[in-house]
Amino acid sequence: MSKYSGYEKKVNLHKQPEPHPIWRGIGCFIMLVTPVLSYLLAVIAVNYAMEQGIRLPEGLAGYPVMPDWLFFVPGLVKILYWIQSRQNLYAYLFMTFVFIVALGGVISLLYAVMYSIAGPKRYNALDAPPPNVKTRKYKR
């Protein structure tokens, strides 16, 4: 024991408050639910487009094609046959990516607005006050 320390543990009086658990729930929603919802919306959008007579690009329409060398791996054969049996899979995946970007942007924007309204203060007791500097307009 040193000369200037006591027996008790020092308790940090300025403990940072943790964010409300709802902020973790919003992050979970963005990471888990958004891709699933995007895939469902992509399936609906692609099927609706095909019903309306809108032609999909040739690279996206039809059944996916896998290279022959992948079928030499024994564990992948069943998975590859399942993937090749899905019609318009590339269109679904492309539209899923579009919906993930769009929904992620909207949810992030709403999250930012909610956090700015209900989040912690910008400055706490440990921060230095903002500088109080008054400047004049420069005239030449």
Can you describe this structure?
- With 140 residues, this protein is mainly α.
- It has a domain of 72 residues.
- 49% of the residues lie in helices and 0% in strands.
- The chain contains three helices and no strands.
- The longest helix is centred in the first third of the chain and has 31 residues.
- The radius of gyration is 28 Å and the shape is elongated.
Features:
mainly alpha, 140 residues, elongated, 0% strand
Task: Compile the SSE list and pairings.
Blueprint: H1 21-51, H2 77-84, H3 89-118
Helix pairs in contact: 1-3
Describe the structure concisely for a colleague.
By secondary structure, this protein is mostly helical. The chain has helices spanning 21-51, 77-84, 89-118.
State the helix count: 3
- Could you give the order of the helices and strands? HHH
Mind summarizing the main beta sheet? Answer: none
Radius of gyration: 28 Å
Roughly what is the average pLDDT, rounded to an integer?
A: 84
Structural class: mainly alpha
Taking pLDDT < 50 over at least 5 consecutive residues as the criterion, the unreliable ranges are none
Intertermini distance = 66 Å
Question: What general form does the structure show?
Answer: elongated
Beta percentage is under 5%
Q: What's the helical proportion of residues?
A: 40-55%
Number of strands: 0
